[in-house]
Amino acid sequence: xxxxxxxxAFPGGGVMAAAPVARLEAWFGRRCARLxxxxxxxKAAWLAPLVFGLLSVLLGQDDNWDLRNYHLYNPxxxxxxxxxxxxxxxxxxxxxxxxxxxxxxxLVTHLPAPLAGFVMGALHGLNFMLVLxxxxxxxxxxxxxxxxxxxxxLAVCGVCGAGFLAQVGASTGDNMTALLVLSxxxxxxxxxxxxxxxxxxxxxxxLAGLVMGLGTGLKLTNATFATGxxxxxxxVTVPWRARLRLAFLFGVAVVAGIAITAGWWFVxxxxxxxxxxFPQFNNIFHSPLALEHGVIDDFHVPKxxxxxxxxxxxxxxxxxRVSELKxxxxxxxxxxxxxxxxxxxxxxxxxxxxLPQARERFLLxxxxxxxxxxxxxxGIYRYLIPIExxxxxxxxxxxxxxxxxxxxxxxxxxxxxxxxxxxxxxxTWGHSDWAWRGFSADxxxxxxxxxxxxxxxxxxxxxxxxxxLLPREIxxxxxxxxxxxxxxxxxxxxxxxxxxxxxxxxxxxxxDDARRRLDIRLAxxxxxxxxxxxxGCRRLEWLLNKVRQRIQVAPAPAGSGRACTLETQPQxxxxxAQKNADIVQRAREVLARYGLRIEAGxxxxxxxxxxxxxxxxxxxxxxxxxxxx
Length: 629
Known about the structure:
Blueprint: H1 19-33, H2 38-59, E1 61-62, H3 65-71, H4 73-79, H5 101-110, H6 113-138, H7 149-158, H8 162-166, H9 174-190, H10 192-196, H11 202-218, H12 223-232, H13 240-273, H14 282-285, H15 305-309, H16 311-317, H17 331-348, H18 358-377, H19 385-402, H20 405-421, E2 431-432, E3 439-441, E4 453-456, E5 475-478, H21 486-497, E6 503-508, H22 513-527, H23 534-546, E7 551-555, E8 564-568, H24 576-591, E9 596-598, E10 604-606, E11 608-610, E12 613-614, E13 617-624
Parallel strand pairs: 4-5, 4-6
Antiparallel strand pairs: 1-2, 3-11, 6-13, 7-8, 9-13, 10-13, 11-12
């Protein structure tokens, strides 16, 4: 059978013998040919932010755990002078640099919540444009048949990463600071020819370092990427003294960028607590207010050298090792295996024609050094977003270092298509239905708010987001927020004793999800007339037997005008009062360690909402225990 020429460049040249695969490649090639124009790039440039803005709206109101813990509280605390006034309402994360959170806080407090969500998603969508620009710089030697389509499709695969999609429109900050990390990479690639000059490149590395430093100051976990970029500069093909100069200037600029976005916060923390990174790295700064810890959260890092060597496979099979959120991905085992294969080829020092070029070596060093630094320091998957976005491009580069060009293109097309598709349907860090206001609460009147302390004794679910909705005169104190020292406990006691009261414990309330689901189905059955007569009730019972909904048909109350109603099945009913009492009991056990007790039977329940999601809370009057511990 005669061989036909392949279609577009991205899926590759020749056609496989298997007819279905050949037809699929030909079809894909024809579609991709339309993308191989400058006009396609221009359309993608403005469509990507719009698409991700709309995706953010479709996902709903951001309702992630960190948002309810500290992303709202931290900027509020700075803007209203509450640093040192409150004590850790967002637990130890209360003392993270809030600069990045000012954007989300400003949007959600001044705009309708859906519009704020759209803006956040659109900003995250700008990552697509940066990945596209980086890919275009890396693949600038492609022939005309793939010059535009290959970078465009690699950018599409990049934004199909599980970690990136999970955070679209969210306040978590990883997608947002990825913009600065990728911008720093792009600055260096665009100035690549200048870097090759024996005495050139100073301005380029200073600008890239400044941008990278801004991102690191906003979110210190980006220090892994700053390290990777700094070491990647040693891949520039200039004398070693020039490489040292470039890396040194880059590092100086990174420090300057960190000073701009985080310096003010480091000073505030030093003046308040004696540790600019309080309460972390206290093994270096020795503040009496925290234990001698380094990084507090080291749960997610590999525990042995063997785990570290197999880490991409470990966390792909057991994703809970790197995330509380279960995500599906295959890109990291693929990158790892290809990286090992290229390393073996380099160690054999054969096939020199296929070795990565200087730009490719630069990107590969940045990518893999950043990965190793992440694995060693954090191991939390969402801190990998910048290099997750670049992972498809790295796969492309590695395959071309191993295989002949046409074979590498076809292999990249199939591998990256599988890696992108396996992510769907993707999970997120939490959303609720939209309401016009992002956050609201029914707050009772306090008799003497300027003499009141609200104590938060339970960390989960987080309640830091409620502090903004309380009267500003109230002082909020979290106990058992992180491993405490005697001076820290003394500070808590002084805060409580310094006000006459009344004081309260702030606790979560119980949401009757079963009741909420039942109300929705009652309304639907009522609109359909399925509870009006015996015939409708029989249809309703038949339907519920076919579709398991945790509800059942029951006789209607006398005088209701209906033949039947719906009720929650007994095994799914929730005793809200008992659940709330259990929460109060847990709080009593914690508060007793601080000489506090909850007055029996005095707790009141109040409504609060994140978007349209009900999150009731309890206020419980406090008194001093008769025998303080």
